[in-house]
Structures are given as structure tokens and as C-alpha cells.
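Postdoc handover notes: sequence design on the structure in folder B. Input C-alpha cells:
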């Protein structure tokens, strides 16, 4: 750790950094930042920076408000193109209590606990997301309240020229690469003005930090061109929404624990049980992987999003997909959890996915048969006869499942779990009481 601190201090001096942003997130995954000058950096790295946790959603109560933002020196990165001409850097923080113990309301600490549990079982957890999002023309009069206006009418893999959305996506990729964040793929997605950036595999804690960074980079670069970038799961009706498919795997002793050479699917018994855990606990963790009212406008039949709880190799209607293992590269073995959306809190979502999978590993869950058929084409009776369940169809249903889940309560911890459930119930009540444009158009003239 001292080596990392020395590197940070030396880099700040050599690169003439003028400001250092200390990043953390609230329980809902909203980014927060405290900005300091280099003169304060060494003390912050050693002792942390005290702030009022009661002012952050899901953190402290007023009577126990003070907490410390403790920079994780390994996350230090320069912020190219994001701070005008002023050299600026950022470092991600863990939130700790004044006595140095982990603060239970910190989402990063929630993921750390889940990773510690995996480590105790002999595993390291790796992840890679497919980040989908939209670009829209910004209307200052409505600030996005009116129907959003796409920048293009492209579709899947379209190669466009002199197109602002594609230009912004390329600038985002170059900025991430300049920050040391490798991008595997990027392309135009299926819906108008929808794009995708796929981040390269790394350990889950680094990936959660990276997802937060990537979202900010995309939105900041768009705003500089007077464009709105949105990770809202379903901003447009009639086209597919934005998902964040999570490719995950466990490693043990530097070897991919999901690979099984003798298995017809090239999956180990650990992988079988991990997938079984994802399937059995999918309904319980959906409130975390899909945490907004709008998330459930995406999880409907007909728009390539998963609805039914099943697994398969090449069936994209399944909740869990097993991508083919690259020839001669057993370490590429992974499973793809397709429900999550890009507006989730990545720390909580990765913790929930890991905990569900580990429950299957520890509990020796049996993996049900693969379902290769298009699940959208089956009748409800056919799905029932095959024992195929469905994900929650609304935030209210998802929160009911979450509240009854011991697995999720243990994963999030009492502090985050109770606040999260309370907050999501309040969101549902606010949504239910809202009179929407749909209702006015449909009912006002005739009722």
C-alpha cells in the first residue's frame, strides 16, 4: 500500500495535477465526489477525509453522521479531457467509520464482503459488462421530460459516417483507454441512437469502479456536445431497452474454475452449481440488478430482454447464457447473466450475482436441463409444464421478493438492506400516485 501511495504522490507532482477528486457512491449508485488540492492529498491517503454521512442517501443517521472517505490508492487515475485544461485526477474511496472499521452503508464495502466470502471458499470473482445506453438531443426547455429525440435511426452494428453519436462513443472509448481502462468492443446497438461499450474482464471490485467511471465519461463527453447520454433502461417505447449483460467467472489458483474439459458444455461442476444458484435466486436479486420502476418496462416479452428463468448456450431469450469457450482458451469460460441493466448500482449488483452463484456452489444445487427453445414462443401452460418461472414483472413484485430473501439480506447487510427496501417501496408509491401521459391519452377523452 505504501508503494501505491508513493506512486500517487509522485504522479500528482510530476503531472502537475491541480485537483484530486475523491469518488464514492451512495446506495443507489449515484456518484459522489469531494475535491481536494494536492496539498491535502497525503493526509487524505493516510487518514481519510471526514464528512457528514447523513447528507448522503442510505448512509448515516443524523445522530451518528460522521464517516471517513478513505482513498484506495490502487484506483488512482488521471482524468483526461474531463476537467477542461486543468490537470485533474480521481481516486475511489472506501467509506469507513471514524475508528477505521468498514462502514456498513458503503456499497463498495458490500462488494468487498461478498468477495471476501468467495476468497474464503478459494475463489476470485471476475466480471465484464456490456454497457448499453442512448444518446438524445438535449431540449433545454424540457430537459428530457418530453419524448427523447434520438440522434440517429441506425440499427445493430450499423456503420455510420459523420455521425455525432458514433463520434461520441469513439471519444468515450479513447478516453477510457487513456485512463488505463481497456475496452473490448464497441458498436451501435439495435435501437435508434443506442450504443454499446464492452469492458474487458477484470476482478469484480475494479470492474464496479470502472462501470461508475465509464458512465461518467460517457455522460460528460456527451454533455460537452450538448447531447444527453442516458443509461435509463427503457427510454423509448417500441424498441429494445438498455441492458448490462454481466459476463462472470470464478478463478481458483489462477485457473478458471468454470472450465470442465470433459463436460459437453465445457462447464465444470462448480459452474453447473453456480448457474443453478443464479436461477434459484434470480427473483430475489432482481430488485438490485434492476432497481428502478423503469427497469421493468425493459423486462417484457418481445424486446430481447430476459423474462423467463432458464439457461442455455445460444438462446438469447434465456436469463443465463453460456457463451462458447474459445478454442484453446479455457480461461475464457464464463456465464452471462442477462437481466441486469446499466442503471443499477454495480457494487450491489455484482455482490448479489456472486452471492446467488456461491449459494448454488455451497448448497450443491442441481442444474436443471438446458432450454434451447425460444421461450417467448411457448404458451403459459407449456412454460408451467416445464417448470419455467419468470422474473418479477414490476418493482413492487421485485421488492416483495427481495424483502423475503435471507440471501439478499445477508449480502447487503442490515443497514443497506433495510434502507434499500424502504427507498424502493417509496419509489413505487410515488409511481403509483402519478397520472401518466399514457393514462391521459387513453382515458381522458372517453371516460
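Designed sequence:
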Amino acid at each position: 500500500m505504501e508503494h501505491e501511495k508513493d506512486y500517487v504522490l509522485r504522479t500528482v507532482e510530476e503531472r502537475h495535477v491541480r485537483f484530486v477528486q475523491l469518488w464514492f457512491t451512495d446506495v443507489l449508485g449515484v456518484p459522489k465526489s469531494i475535491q481536494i488540492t494536492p496539498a491535502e492529498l497525503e493526509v487524505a491517503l493516510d487518514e481519510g477525509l471526514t464528512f457528514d454521512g447523513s447528507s448522503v442517501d442510505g448512509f448515516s443517521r443524523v445522530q451518528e453522521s460522521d464517516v471517513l472517505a478513505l482513498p484506495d490508492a490502487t484506483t488512482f487515475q488521471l482524468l483526461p479531457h474531463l476537467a477542461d485544461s486543468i490537470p485533474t485526477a480521481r481516486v475511489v474511496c472506501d467509506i469507513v467509520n471514524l475508528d477505521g472499521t468498514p462502514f456498513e452503508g458503503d456499497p463498495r464495502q458490500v462488494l468487498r464482503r461478498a468477495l471476501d466470502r468467495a476468497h474464503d471458499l478459494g475463489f476470485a470473482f471476475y466480471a465484464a459488462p456490456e454497457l448499453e445506453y442512448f444518446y438524445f438531443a438535449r431540449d433545454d426547455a424540457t430537459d428530457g421530460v418530453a419524448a427523447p429525440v434520438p440522434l440517429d435511426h441506425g440499427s445493430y452494428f450499423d456503420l455510420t459516417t459523420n455521425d455525432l453519436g458514433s463520434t461520441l462513443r469513439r471519444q468515450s472509448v479513447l478516453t477510457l483507454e487513456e485512463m488505463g481502462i481497456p475496452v473490448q468492443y464497441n458498436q451501435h446497438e439495435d435501437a435508434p441512437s443506442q450504443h454499446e461499450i464492452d469492458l474487458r474482464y477484470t476482478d469484480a471490485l475494479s470492474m464496479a469502479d470502472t462501470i461508475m467511471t465509464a458512465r461518467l465519461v460517457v455522460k460528460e463527453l456527451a454533455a460537452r456536445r450538448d447531447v444527453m447520454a442516458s443509461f435509463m433502461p427503457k427510454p423509448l417505447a417500441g424498441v429494445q431497452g438498455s441492458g448490462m449483460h454481466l459476463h462472470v467467472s470464478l478463478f481458483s489458483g489462477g485457473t478458471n474454475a468454470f472450465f470442465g474439459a470433459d463436460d459437453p458444455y465445457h462447464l465444470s461442476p462448480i459452474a453447473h452449481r453456480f448457474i443453478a444458484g443464479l436461477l434459484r435466486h434470480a427473483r430475489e436479486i432482481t430488485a438490485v440488478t434492476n432497481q428502478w420502476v423503469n427497469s421493468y418496462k425493459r423486462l417484457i416479452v418481445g424486446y430481447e430482454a430476459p423474462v423467463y428463468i432458464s439457461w442455455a448456450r445460444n438462446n438469447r431469450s434465456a436469463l443465463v447464457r453460456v457463451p462458447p469457450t474459445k478454442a484453446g482458451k479455457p480461461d475464457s469460460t464464463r456465464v452471462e447473466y442477462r437481466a441486469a441493466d446499466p442503471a443499477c448500482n454495480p457494487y450491489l449488483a455484482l455482490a448479489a450475482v456472486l452471492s446467488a452463484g456461491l449459494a448454488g456452489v455451497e448448497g450443491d444445487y442441481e442444474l436443471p436441463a438446458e432450454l434451447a427453445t425460444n421461450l417467448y414462443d411457448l404458451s403459459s401452460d407449456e412454460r408451467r409444464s416445464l417448470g419455467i418461472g419468470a422474473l418479477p414483472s414490476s418493482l413492487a413484485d421485485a421488492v416483495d421478493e427481495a424483502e423475503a430473501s435471507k440471501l439478499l439480506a445477508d449480502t447487503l447487510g442490515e443497514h443497506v438492506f433495510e434502507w434499500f427496501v424502504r427507498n424502493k417501496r417509496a419509489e413505487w408509491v410515488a409511481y403509483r400516485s402519478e397520472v401518466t401521459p399514457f393514462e391521459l391519452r387513453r382515458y381522458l377523452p372517453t371516460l
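Context for whoever picks this up: Residues 2-97 form a domain with the Ubiquitin-like (UB roll) fold (CATH 3.10.20.70). Don't rerun without checking with the PI first.
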